[in-house]
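User: I'll paste a sequence; please echo it back and then give the predicted structure.

Assistant: Echoing your sequence first, then the prediction.
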Amino acid sequence: MSSFSPLLSGPVLASLGAVLAASLGALGAAIGIGYSGSSMIGTVAEKPATFSKAMISVVLAEALAIYGLLSAFMIIMRLSDTLSFAQGLIALSAGLAIGLAAIGGGIGIAKAGSSMCTAIAEAPETFSKSLVSVVLAEALAIYGLLSSFMLIMRIDQVTYDAQGLLGMAAALGVGLATLGGGLGIASSGSALSESLVKAPGTFSKGLVSTVLAEALAIYGLLAGFMLIMRIDTVTLIPQAMTGMAAAMAIGLAALGGGIGIARAGASLCRGLVDAPESFSKGLVAVVLAEALAIYGLLASFMLVMRLDAVTLDAQWMMAMGAAIGVGLAAIGGGYGIARAGASLCQSVAEAPATFSKGLVAVVLAEALAIYGLLISFMIIMRVDTATSIAEGILAMSSGLGIGIAAIGGGIGIALGGEALCASLREAPETFSKSLVAVVLAEALAIYGLLAAFMLIMRIEAIETVSSAFVGFAAAMTVGIGGFCAGLAIGLAGRAMIRAMVDQPGVFSKSMVPVVLAEALAIYTLLVAFMLIMRI
């Protein structure tokens, strides 16, 4: 019996795997069928001749449940009382991989398929082009199905609990990345179909954002395959947990990329209708959102390359700290790019000259993820030398500190940057003043970066677990302070920027709440510094 829990056994875990495959597959199909099917019914009611074309999105959504059913059948065929805990974990992982991927595919088909049905009601000739986004969403589930099959094929080969845990890591990496891809395809694919009705010639340019969203899932698939290929060589739990960290790095980063591409990509497609020349400028925001997942992929590869060298719990805790840092920071950057980037795309479509100024907000959002990547690299470089649990706790604290602070900065930049880009269309002269709110939001992540850097510098000297938890307190203090301040700066900064469009003279007075919101993060930063000095 495994040391994980005396209440769990191989057959129980394998049964749960079959449940996840079938039920989550059905959930993904339900999301797709519910939304695209509703749109199909409206389209067919208006134009009965479109039935066969409109029905395709519903059929593709139905296929998601069939993929889950296939995996469930294969898991059940291997169900027996002799399954070990490790074998049960592999079966559970197989069910999770197809289940999460089916949900990602369902989200994509729901919006892209719905818009496809609406588009062919107005312009039947757009069918083949609109269908591409739906098929790309369907492919997300196929990635999960492939991963599920590869895991099921290894059920009979695993003997160590660590091998089963590494399979779970692979499933999570693929599953989270397909969710990110689904979010991106849902919005960008939907906007692509809408734009084709008004401007069929925008297809090739508009498709780029949807393809970039698809790439997020492919990154997760690559990391998942690398982990699956290492299952046979892993024997220790710390090695498997390092693999889990690699999966979390790419999975969370892909979610961040999906959030960014969803809104920025949709705005890019809509802008092409009236201003196709705005494509190259608007694409910058989408590419920057895509880069968030690449940061996670780099961290994931570096962690996978260190699997063989990991033997201690402290080392996998270090790896998890690196994953948390790059993953959460990517989510913060993704949300900032989503709103600021979408507003930038709209602005350059109406006023191309606003590009260079509006891009500043998007670049500042991108920088949030780069801060997380820097901390991640610094931690990964220390994985091989870690020996104590205290070092691992301090590394995880560093990742949490920069990650949560970056999310706060992302919220502030999202709201403030969105308003800044919009204001450039009506009052470009307010740019320098409007930028202050966005820069103050960016500073929140820098506070987290400083605290994380100071914690990392103390890793080698840390001696006790109690001292490490002082570092954890410092990281959470600066992270939560940054999150709270980011929300306040975003709301107050957005109001300030909008007010200056009509009343530029209101700047000095309206800055008061923004500065006071920034002070919240400074208070917590001071507390964090005092705590770090006590380590």
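The chain has 14 helices and no strands. The CA atoms of residues 69 and 86 lie 23 Å apart.
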